[in-house]
Structure formats: structure tokens, C-alpha cells
Design a protein that fits this description.
Helix content is 33%, strand content 28%. By secondary structure, it is an alpha/beta fold. It folds into two domains: 4-224, P-loop containing nucleotide triphosphate hydrolases (Rossmann fold), CATH 3.40.50.300; 228-307, Alpha-Beta Plaits (2-Layer Sandwich). A hairpin with a 2-residue loop joins strand 4 and strand 5. Helix 3 (96-106) packs parallel to helix 5 (138-150). The radius of gyration is 25 Å and the shape is elongated. This is Multidrug ABC transporter ATPase. Keywords: ATP-binding, Nucleotide-binding, Transport. Residues 6-235 form the ABC transporter domain. It comes from Methylophaga lonarensis MPL.
Length: 309
């Protein structure tokens, strides 16, 4: 079995207006992983997802889902995919149960009430199964979208901004569900504006901007390669300038002269942290506290986008 469940090759898309949404995109997503696709508004995230899901025509290039070409083998490819869109896309006058039964039938799956019951219980929807969707809260409607996407037992689940505008409790419940799904072998691809979610959940992260993939890497490798660290020294007494002992290092004096900050790259053979601390000691500066700070994924994301402007 192919390790990659999604295989995008040299994909480009130009709309009739002349706008190039995607430019020579190559992307491979592995079976069973949680993959986060990050990018600003208009970066190409929605176009890429829509092409993979068969909602937008391929321009140039090829897209395979579970080994099936999304153009030449559309039905087989689409059966592999469950999609949870940003917008509500269900019949609000139908019941929760009938919505799932109908969605399962659309994809040619035989009835399986036990499976649908399991989905509804995992999403805390079982008690609402006979309720019409219009009577549900916004959070419950979002849960129904997820249940509907899972009704036909897809191998790949796309979550497009799944927690935008939902409360903290629902966000937590949804991510617990994502982890459960991953343990059953479902591949999860999510887009999110909450970069802390990608940092916590994703195995690998892709960053897209202006229709091009800037990078794809494992989360920790990305933070290690592109992240930076800071040595933050809290001083017992404020200083107005750096003493001679510290002149060879690039140190920044903080507000009111009460902190010294040293930026360093943890990947370099020598980061000079020990030398900085020794020089501070020789200078006679008394410290009240020493801290280190690691770049967050959000800081790396922002810096990458600034480099491409």
C-alpha cells in the first residue's frame, strides 16, 4: 500500500479572471498523519483543498487520493474523502439521523446503524439524533457537519477552519475526537487560523502563500531548524549601557535597563551562551533570574510570510 494517501504533483490553477491561485504545487500527505496547512487569507488553501475534494476542476497537474486520480477516477477518489467545510452545508429541516443515513447512501455505502450510532455518541449527538438540525445550537450544528463527513467511513478527513467561532469547550472536544480518529487510521488534514492548534496537534505542517508551498516539515524539525532561542537575563539593578566585557556579544538592553536579551540559534555548534554568562559574571552585573525562550510556531509562520513579501 502506498505510504502517501494524498499525492499532488505540479498542480497549477488559474481562474477565468486571470488570478493564479496555485503555482506548481507538490504535496504528499502520509496515511494516518495529522497534517496542518497554514497560510494567510488568499494564499491558496481553499483552492487546493477544493481541487483535492473534487469541488474545483484541476488546472494543470495531477492529484491522486488513495491512488485514484481525482479527474479520471473521480468517484473512487471522492469516496476516500470526508469534508467538513467552514460554512453550514446541511438541510436544516432534516433530522440528524436522516442526514447521516442520506450522506452514507450518496457514497454507495450499505446501511450500518451501529457505525452511525458510534459516530453520534463520540460527538455527543446521540440524544439529538431525532432532532431537526434547525433546532440545534451552532456548536451542535458543527458537530453534525463532522458526523456527516464521517458517515461513509472515509480514509481522509478535511477540516477547513473547523473551530472558527466555536467555544473553548467545543474546540477541546473536537480535538479529542481528531486524536481518536487518527488512532483508527484516518488521515486528518486541517486548515486553521489558530496556529496553537497546529502546534499542538499536527505531525507535519505545510505553509502556503501566494499559491506556492513554502515548506513542508515535521513540526519539531521545523521549530528546531527555523526557530530561535533567547537567553533573558533579569538584572538586580538597571544598567544604561553594556560594559566592555560584553562588547563582543550582541545583547539588547530591555525597558528601564532591567533585562539583557541574547538571541541565539540552537542548531549552531557553538551558541556562546556559556561565554555570555561568564562575561556577565566578570562584568560584575548581578542577576536576579535567568530564562530561555523558544520561538513559537506562530513566530516562525509570521517571519516566513514576511520573507516572501
Amino acid at each position: 500500500m502506498d505510504e502517501n494517501v494524498i499525492d499532488v504533483r505540479k498542480l497549477s490553477k488559474v481562474y477565468s479572471s486571470g488570478f493564479q491561485a496555485l503555482n506548481q504545487v507538490d504535496l504528499q500527505i502520509k496515511r494516518g498523519e495529522i497534517f496542518a496547512l497554514l497560510g494567510p487569507n488568499g494564499a491558496g488553501k481553499t483552492t487546493l483543498i477544493s481541487i483535492i475534494c473534487g469541488l474545483v476542476n484541476v488546472g494543470q497537474g495531477q492529484v491522486l487520493v488513495g491512488g485514484f486520480d481525482v479527474v479520471k477516477q473521480f468517484r473512487q477518489a471522492r469516496k476516500q474523502i470526508g469534508l467538513v467545510p467552514q460554512e453550514l452545508s446541511i438541510d436544516i429541516f432534516e433530522t440528524v439521523w436522516r442526514t447521516l443515513v442520506f450522506s452514507r447512501g450518496v457514497f454507495g455505502k450499505p446501511p450500518n446503524d451501529d457505525y452511525l450510532e458510534t459516530i453520534l455518541k463520540s460527538l455527543s449527538l446521540w440524544d439529538k439524533r431525532h432532532s431537526k438540525i434547525q433546532s440545534l445550537s451552532g456548536g451542535m450544528k458543527r458537530r453534525v457537519l463532522i458526523a456527516k463527513a464521517l458517515a461513509h467511513e472515509p480514509e481522509v478527513l478535511f477540516l477547513d477552519e473547523p473551530t472558527a467561532g466555536v467555544d473553548v469547550e467545543l474546540r477541546r472536544d473536537m480535538w479529542l475526537m481528531v486524536e481518536k480518529l487518527r488512532r483508527t487510521g484516518v488521515t486528518i488534514i486541517l486548515t486553521t487560523h489558530y496556529i496553537d492548534e497546529a502546534e499542538e496537534l499536527a505531525d507535519r505542517i505545510g505553509i502556503i502563500n501566494r499559491g506556492e508551498i513554502l515548506l513542508v516539515d515535521h513540526k519539531w524539525d521545523l521549530m528546531k531548524k527555523l526557530g530561535r532561542k533567547q537567553l533573558i537575563l533579569q538584572l538586580q539593578s538597571p544598567i544604561g549601557h553594556l560594559p566592555d566585557e560584553l562588547s563582543e556579544f550582541v545583547l539588547h538592553i530591555g525597558a528601564e535597563g532591567k533585562t539583557l536579551t541574547y538571541d541565539y540559534d540552537d542548531n549552531q555548534p557553538s551558541n556562546h551562551v556559556t561565554e555570555v554568562l561568564a562575561a556577565v559574571h566578570r562584568s560584575g552585573i548581578a542577576l536576579s533570574d535567568v530564562q530561555t525562550k523558544q520561538s513559537t510556531l506562530e513566530e516562525i509562520f509570521v517571519s516566513l510570510l514576511e520573507e516572501t513579501r
